[in-house]
Amino acid sequence: MATVVDRKHPFKTSLSSKFLWLGLFAYLAYAFSTLDIGWNRFVLGLDQGARLVDRLFPPNFARWELLLSDLIESLQIAIIASVLGIVISLFVGLMAARNLMPNAISIPVRVFIALCRTFHPVIIAILFVKAVGFGAMAGILTLTVASIGFVAKLFAEAIEEISFKQVEAIRATGAGFISTIVFAVIPQVFSRFIGFSIYQLDSNLRNSTMIGIVGAGGLGGTLFSAFQRFDYDFVTAILMAIIALILVGEALSNLVRRIFQ
């Protein structure tokens, strides 16, 4: 039975809704009781955090050459992986669109896309580090897979929402499948595809600094090593470099938007 809500009194709900809220609060209380969460630990964490912040400043840029080298590597990993992933997603998304492809093609491709986004990039990075070794190669492969999982899925869904009037008009002229895609499908979804791609570039810039923690190149490995050495002033310098990387990504995103507007 559907929940009955009084229009005059929107907060007056049925008995089943009350039990639902009661169950939710009971579960939250149970979760807090089973996890190591407490006010004393929070207060202790504030004290330790204050000491950590004191050790973080001032930042140490003495090893600026290493910092710049890793920053450039992270940027290169993100850009190369984004380009590869976006190009591959263009074809994968087309094959996953159920209004263009038969189920024999679209279903396996959709399973492939789901697999690409099943695992967190760090887990994928661990697998590629084991497969191809430490360094940028593992990072590029990791972020390429992550790009396919995101961009191809949204691109396929965008294609499924197109108007088929343009498709039928192009087909009526005797155009083949490729011409139909180029002149009837792509123009309808191109702006959305550019939006997906820009978002994925921004995501890859952030992830390129994270996957390095497991050895997939970039700033992440240097950051992890600095934490292990308790070299907190250098950690601050690395974090500032990461912020600079994200700002560079914002500039690149704005540039791409201006080009394709």
The proportion of residues in beta strands is: under 5%
The helix/strand class is mainly alpha
- Mean pLDDT over the residues: 85
Termini, distance in Å? 49 Å
Helix-strand topology string: HHHHHHHHHH
The CATH homologous superfamily is termed MetI-like
Radius of gyration: 25 Å
Could you say what the CATH topology is called?
A: MetI-like fold
Uncertain runs with pLDDT below 50, 5 residues or more?
Answer: 1-5
Instruction: Give the C-level CATH assignment.
Output: Mainly Alpha
Q: What is the count of distinct domains?
A: 1
CATH architecture: Orthogonal Bundle
What is the quaternary state of this protein? single chain
Shape: globular
Major sheet characteristics: none
Q: Percent helix among the residues?
A: over 70%
Helix count, per DSSP? 10
By DSSP, the count of extended strands is 0
Main location: membrane
InterPro entries: MetI-like, MetI-like_sf, PhnE/PtxC
Membrane topology: Multi-pass membrane protein
Transmembrane segments: 20-39, 75-97, 109-128, 134-156, 168-190, 234-256
